[in-house]
Write a structure and sequence with these properties.
Helix content is 41%, strand content 24%. It has 323 residues and is α+β, with helices and mostly antiparallel strands. The strands form 3 sheets. It has a 5-stranded antiparallel beta sheet with strand order 6-5-4-3-7, covered by helices on one side. The longest helix has 17 residues, at 77-93.
């Protein structure tokens, strides 16, 4: 049992008993009486834990004025590891997003790491989140949209439309924020189109929070729109894509979920046929193309033709290149 776990055990036993003698702590922690006393002193001096020596019971107890729970954040090694992994995940999603709120937690993590004879940086080296090509939006804009969601207020956004290569200005009623494939998206009711829309936050250049209340959109409607669509796009199902993957690629794709309503089956030759619904094929096409010749679109003809055309166009650009 390492030092940090001993501290956690001491916390537990002091919180559950009126008084705990040294002999009981020696047996619980499987250490010497001298180590128990050093641990108690460390908890008092470094963590400000109100531990008192009770002469009447010949044992340690918490100061009644401090309550049963010890102050601050207390973690056993398993919980510490889980929190470090979550800290790295949050930081990878958007650096600095929760710095104001994670600051106090990091101070406590630093104390816990030092209590175990380590530094927080040395522990962080064992927990890594590698984000693939993340797109970073303006942190101030993200906070304004989040504020509008909480306060149920409309916003006016200036948004760069990458497909049309132009900037647009829209009044929207934001409903939710979603982190998806390395980017943040705002789901909102667009007052111009009078329909549900999704805006990439990294393409939002300016946000103005209005005093007007939002246009209410039932969560059931949002869930239905998102569940029916493929990827980040919204809208009712227009087609079902049928894709066959080679036996080799099937070993990976069979473990993936492309859509909550997908259908799939292995074929006799080991290939894998996947069926997914979609309303907009832009993201689906990208997912198919990343598998190269190991993915073949069987249906519908429009999707098969588009993917085939893109493959042919790519192949033409490499014509004459030696293998």
């Amino acid at each position: 049992m390492d030092r940090s776990e001993r501290f956690y055990r001491i916390r537990q036993v002091l919180g559950s008993r009126r008084s705990v003698g040294i002999a009981a702590l020696v047996e619980l922690l499987e250490v010497s009486p001298a180590t128990v006393k050093r641990d108690i002193e460390y908890l008092r001096d470094r963590f400000n834990v109100p531990i008192l020596w009770d002469r009447a019971t010949r044992g340690y107890r918490l100061d009644p004025s401090a309550g049963v729970e010890l102050p601050g954040l207390w973690l056993d090694p398993e919980e510490l590891g889980a929190l470090l992994a979550m800290e790295q995940l949050l930081e990878s999603l958007h650096p600095g997003l929760l710095e104001t709120y994670l600051g106090p937690i990091r101070k406590r993590l630093t104390s816990l790491a030092l209590a175990n004879g380590k530094t927080l940086d040395s522990l962080r080296q064992h927990f890594r989140i590698l984000a693939a090509a993340p797109r970073r939006g303006d942190l101030a804009n993200m906070r304004l949209v989040a504020r509008a969601i909480v306060e149920r207020r409309r916003v006016v956004i200036e948004h760069y439309h990458r497909i049309r290569d132009e900037r647009i200005r829209r009044e929207v009623s934001p409903h939710h924020l979603t982190y998806y494939r390395g980017a943040w998206y705002a789901g909102a009711w667009c007052h111009l189109r009078e329909d549900l829309r999704v805006f990439s936050l990294d393409a939002i250049e300016r946000v103005e929070v209005r005093d007007q209340p939002i246009h209410q959109v039932d969560s059931v409607r949002w869930d239905a729109a998102i569940r029916a669509s493929y990827g980040i796009f919204t809208g009712p199902v227009q087609h079902w894509a049928v894709i066959r993957f080679s036996p080799e690629r099937a070993r990976w794709v069979a473990a993936e979920q492309w859509h909550p309503e997908q259908k799939s089956a292995f074929q006799d030759d080991g290939s894998y046929v996947l069926q997914v619904p979609y309303s907009d094929d832009r993201e689906l096409v990208m997912d198919i193309l990343r598998h190269g010749p190991d993915a073949e679109v069987l249906e519908p003809p429009s999707l098969r033709g588009r993917v085939g055309h893109l493959h042919a166009e790519a192949a033409s650009r490499y014509a004459g290149v030696g293998g």
